[in-house]
């Protein structure tokens, strides 16, 4: 009797470890993980290839059934489903419904957490960060991608030849591209062998200083240093790959600043003038930078300064600052 019980338990364990060939698996983003990039939804629709159509439901919004039964699709993707959906910031619930030729419906579900581009965003503790470049994950992608490229391939500056570009090239589809990223020197920052985890990036202050040591030294030579600069959080404001905004800012200058300095827009800034209004934050020309719009950076240095308010041009007091534009 005990032998039968052990055999049943062993069989159950095997079915728990090895999913049946017809099972649908949501690979990226995995259930109960957090992720930064929303480029893809990747799933495996079952090795027996009998799912003909799939309906994708994200937070209750349905795609409608997508036909994946064609010979061209099968020859290229086999059992893989690769889509480019839109995720909401925060928690998302994914439901895949696969339909077979006999009308059977197979389902897979995942609850995931999308962080977006904000490097300061954090997911709830029950969502573990998704890490793509782990052995068990890379094995899933090896049919189509070289997941173990050598140093020569990783050093290629050609989009066609660099293995990183096959998945990540769209990260550079912006007007302002960081130098190393623009020539696919990905492994300058994403170390391929010297870190505990594959392609892990060193602590950002240490990494940025390798190229920008002189500039960072200049910032820190002033009496007052902006908090993120002082603690090495360069990526709080700058995107390390590419951006639609100058200096690879993550958003427009004021939007970047006001994402932390939220009280500025809630109060009268600087003080009321004779007309009763506050000093403008945007929407007018910058008198000191021809052709540019007035912004927080028109008066404040975003990195450091000689006064507590980090005024530009080394100014310490308001009146000296104001006279740069208001010469009476």
Report on the structure:
The protein is α+β, with helices and mostly antiparallel strands. Among the domains are: 96 residues, Sandwich (Immunoglobulin-like), CATH 2.60.40; 49 residues, no CATH class; 47 residues, no CATH class. Helices cover 24% and strands 19% of the residues. The chain is built from 11 helices and 13 strands. It has a 6-stranded mixed β-sheet with strand order 5-4-7-8-2-9, with no helix packed on it. Strand 4 and strand 5 form a beta hairpin. It is elongated, with a radius of gyration of 26 Å. The termini are far apart.
Layout of secondary structure:
Blueprint: H1 2-17, E1 25-28, E2 33-35, E3 41-44, E4 51-58, E5 61-67, H2 71-77, E6 80-83, E7 90-100, E8 105-114, E9 128-129, H3 135-141, H4 151-154, H5 165-168, E10 176-177, H6 179-182, H7 186-189, H8 204-220, E11 224-225, H9 227-230, E12 242-243, H10 253-258, E13 304-305, H11 318-322
Parallel strand pairs: 2-8, 2-9
Antiparallel strand pairs: 1-3, 3-6, 4-5, 4-7, 7-8, 10-12, 11-13
- How is the biggest beta sheet arranged? 6 strands, mixed
**Tally of extended strands?**
13
The top level CATH class name of the domain at 2-24 and 38-110:
Mainly Beta
Number of helices: 11
Low-confidence stretches: 4-17
| Computed CA radius of gyration, to the nearest angstrom | 26 Å
Please identify, by name, the CATH architecture of the domain at 2-24 and 38-110: Sandwich
Query: Helical proportion?
Result: 10-25%
Which strand order spans the largest sheet, edge to edge or round the barrel? 5-4-7-8-2-9
Given the helix and strand composition, which structural class is it? alpha+beta
CATH fold-level label of the domain at 2-24 and 38-110: Immunoglobulin-like
Distance between the termini: 100 Å
Instruction: Look at the structure and give the mean pLDDT.
Output: 89
H-E order: HEEEEEHEEEEHHHEHHHEHEHEH
Strand-residue proportion: 15-25%
Overall 3D shape: elongated
